[in-house]
Amino acid sequence: MSNVWPNSATRGTDGALCIAGVDVRDAAAQHGTPLFIFDEADVRARAREYRDAAERVGARKVYYAAKAFLSTAVARWVYEEGLGIDVASGGELAVALRAGIPGTDLLLHGNNKSMIEIEAALEAGVARIVVDSFEEIVRVADAAMRAGIVQPVLVRLTIGVEAHTHEFIATAHEDQKFGFSVASGAADEAIRRIVKLPSLEFRGLHSHIGSQIFDTDGFEEAAVRIVTFIDHLRTDQEVDVTELDLGGGMGIAYLPTDEPLSIDDLASHVALIVARECQSLGLAMPALAFEPGRAIVGPAGITVYEVGTVKPVELDDVVRTYVSVDGGMSDNIRTALYDAQYTIELASRTSNAELMLVRVVGKHCESGDIVVRDAYLPSDLVPGDLLAVAATGAYCRSMASNYNYLPKPAVVGVCDGNTSVVLRRETLDDLLALDPGA
Ligand code: LLP
């Protein structure tokens, strides 16, 4: 099958889609639809690939960005393959700790960490806290002082690089909420304050320029600017930067025509630029870290939906068939939010019928509730058929909502013909339990 599907995806003898030897019809019958299916070996292989590429360039650590998708099982899969975990809230921290990940393999992010989150992170002994505001420097320093520890911190930079990606997921241009601007002098000032605080240990810098990036230009530009800043810190403040965390952002294939970078190419390219720039300025090379999220779990996950209605709509020049499935923007908001494009196939069987132009839509009360805007599916599609959407492992279940009181779908992991529950399906009772009047 094409590169958008999990590594182990095949078509069984009667044409149904199988992941890791599990027929999606069986998984759907057992766990209901919509259903997220993760190929465990695929997640593990991608984590290993990152770890190996990072090792080859002498990087210090790879932290899996948990926001892409998190459960205790997935935390353990990536940890067992040698990754740490980047958590961005007290909730993500709690899941990682429940999975048994030691604090020393965790890094805490967030542009508005609460005092409770900061204290929980300190108690867990998280390896790094990435500070994002002047208020937070004081909060972390105070909490560390009270706890009697010296907390290693990184400073999140805004370096003014425009990543070539959707505006909502680009994060290093000046006019946005993350980080300390280098250009304005805020980053300088942040470090000046941190080094004076005895309960904080300044370790280095962090930069995340955006997500779903397909070229090295942005990373390269970021690396050059950061090294210039490192040089400035040395001459201006006599401060050494020993670590540089370059965040995540590597794009994945959503369509068969997408050609993502290889992690080896990206890591070696970026490491080379940092090394070259450091050498030319006579600086020691900082230890690198990376925080991939999407690239670890995105391609390893699919969503299976059941077709409910098939409605041809006659337009001036074309008939567009609206195919409604039993989920939608509550389990995948990315199409509505970012105009994301996906690959979809008939999963429960194959068909030789002619193809028809379809728009696959959800069951929510919004016309923008689109799963796949334009696709071609067999014209003999009927209610009860199963459809599979590829590359939904990242930022789908983790961004799911209960819009229209839809319970969130189950997530199962498949491996060597076996299925295990990663997250059980929410029930209406789960939702009603929140309402004291129900
Ligand atoms: N590190 C930091 C500090 C981040 O903010 C992010 C993502 C990552 C790492 C991981 O980036 P990745 O390797 O997954 O690109 N909801 C959007 C993506 C938002 C990404 C937010 N930060 C989407 O569905 O495309």
Automatic annotation (TrEMBL):
GO terms for biological process: lysine biosynthetic process via diaminopimelate. Keywords: Decarboxylase, Lyase, Pyridoxal phosphate. Its cofactor is pyridoxal 5'-phosphate. Pfam families: Orn_Arg_deC_N (PF02784). Transmembrane segments: none annotated. Residues 48-298 form the Orn/DAP/Arg decarboxylase 2 N-terminal domain. GO terms for molecular function: diaminopimelate decarboxylase activity. PANTHER family: DIAMINOPIMELATE DECARBOXYLASE, GROUP IV DECARBOXYLASE. This is Unannotated protein. It comes from freshwater metagenome.
